[in-house]
Design a protein that fits this description.
The chain is built from 14 helices and 35 strands. The longest helix has 17 residues, at 168-184. The chain is globular. It starts with a helix and ends with a strand. The chain binds beta-L-fucopyranose. Beta-L-fucopyranose is lined by residues 69-70, 194, 196, 289, 296, 658, 661. The site of beta-L-fucopyranose has 8 residues, from loops.
Length: 703
Amino acid sequence: MTAIDRRQLFFSGGATLAFSPIAFSPLAAHAASGPGPYGATPAPRQLAWHKRQTYAFVHFTINTFTDREWGYGDESVSLFNPTDFSADQIVESAKAGGLKAVILTAKHHDGFCLWPSRYTEHSVKYSPYKDGKGDIVGEMAAACRRHGLEFGLYLSPWDRNHAEYGRPAYVEYYHNQLEELTTQYGPLVEVWFDGANGGDGYYGGARERRKIDGHTYYQWDKVREIVRKNQPKAVMFADSDMDVRWVGNEEGIAGDPCWPTWDYTTPYSLEKANAGVRGGPIWNPAEVDVSIRPGWFWHADEAPRTPANLLNLWFVSVGRGANLLLNIAPDRRGRIPDEDVAALKAWKAIRDQGFATNLASGATVTASSDRGRAYAPKNALSQTTTWAARSSNRAGAWLQLDLPKPATFDVIRLSEDITKGVRVDDYAVDIRVSGDWTEIARHTAIGFERLIRLDQPVTTKAVRLRIISATAAPVIRNVGLFRLPDVLEEPGIRRDEKGLVTLRSPAEGVEVRYTLDGSEPSAASALYAAPFTLSDGGTVMAVARRATTGVVSAIVTQTFDVSPARWTVVSTNGEKAADLLAGGKFVGPNNQPLEIVLDLAQNYNLNGFTLKPIGQNLSVDEITRMGPPAGYEIWLSADGQNWAKEWGAPVASGEFSNIAASRSEQKIRFDAPHEGRFLRLRLPHAVQDKPVIVFAGLGIITR
Ligand code: FUL
């Protein structure tokens, strides 16, 4: 089948409804009384998805009990034993954050099933939970119905437990499981197909690396058929090629702009996933998946994001026309921890307060042109009617709001009627101050929703949306003006390779107070003035405080271990030894394992080590050639001469779970502490068979 045929299969069901010459022609729009669709438009299920905007991911499985992010597949089912599982508490937690649906990991990569599948013994049915009579998927589906949330499921295609993985029999198993999940648990709004495939696994005892072709192996056409037949309203998520695409990172950030349209004529890349394709013929909007804690699964030593941080996430996802899939992770009780629930509630309270009053209501609205009463300028004040400019009125079109009284706002909400396609490219927002128009914001792309957050509130009686360029005359569903409560973000805390700690104030005129003794910082704590040294580690707790009003941020806590300040590189086959400890980009040799020997300057009792994957700053060429290491082997020595086993078995070895998609620091804890002053690290190969290994820093865990 050609690539084009495959795409048509994926999208039969209406995702390219308007992809016809008539719909593309501006003349067609002229002839009709209202604007016709322009370019790609969403299928009904995609439109319903856009309206959902924010919903919860719930990652829960045996990993919760083994402290891992990816299980190997050989874990005993007896480990799955939540002591106080409550589907109601989990769903209520999501609801407390204003999340509209829950997508549960029915099966993660380790293959353990949270429902009693007929097709495997690696499930909840053989676990101690409710003596094998439990069904987490069923309980969650019922709780969602009780609390008015929609429900969706994640079913990992990669299965590290199944003996037949990589062969045709597994694909049949996978389809059978999908059939079970899409028929037994009521309506689903989304089915999530994770693109991760690390290769290695238990595979029924084979313990080997199995490679598949992710495009063909799972028979996606069959997968789509099952979901469309059993759950016609559900969208399917995948890296690309389905109804909803991955945004290309797990940090919660959509591109600016983030077009909901896509093509298959240009090659796939994470940057393309992040930005979408302007004018692409296929409607394939981005979903931003990100976790409230660093990991997807619960880990005792991680803390949730603060409400201010969640608010930022929301502006850079939903505020850019994407949807936010925020992960919350039940702990070993099977409940969302109190501090996560508190953060979710506080986040919702800020949004509720900020968006309670639309300061645009009551405005007199005028525009450069309109298409008659049904598309009058004032329609942009409601969320259900639209203002449409005449078809010849593209660049230079404008909409002006004269407010009944001066309003002070710091958020501008814009939305296009996406059933008429993506029309606006560049635009500015102006306000009138003492008779003159001043530009306060300029962006590209509106889409389903664009939230513009200003650095400072502005006060005015007149606001203007000015279209700078548009491929079709604008059809605007809404212009709203809002004032957020004063929410201070917590200070940033960073330590460099020399052990120097810098605290960053979140805004101008905001002071930072901090402690180093583990006590909560207050207005009376030390005032941050200049960087300070913390080479041997310690805990920094900091708070931001607006001295004029006394408004404070959440308290942020960061614990540092020993810094690399006194370490030296004894040897490496990496590119520049000096870069290794500097926390920048450290690049390995071509097609070879990367080897490093470090002198830590003194003997330590090591509990593990950390490795930081590289962030954004790789060129396109580098991204093609380089990837983070897939796994590690580590040896320790007291003197750098005598290695415990003379390069025999390493003291520890394993994989870096999920390192290809997630850029957060990898924390590897050894099973038991090991002593040594010299450390030898061997990184056998990069992820996805890339020839060169790259990463951005090493650390040790001594506490
Ligand atoms: C990734 C997976 O490998 C992670 O474990 C997690 O499930 C995340 C949502 O997707 O690709």
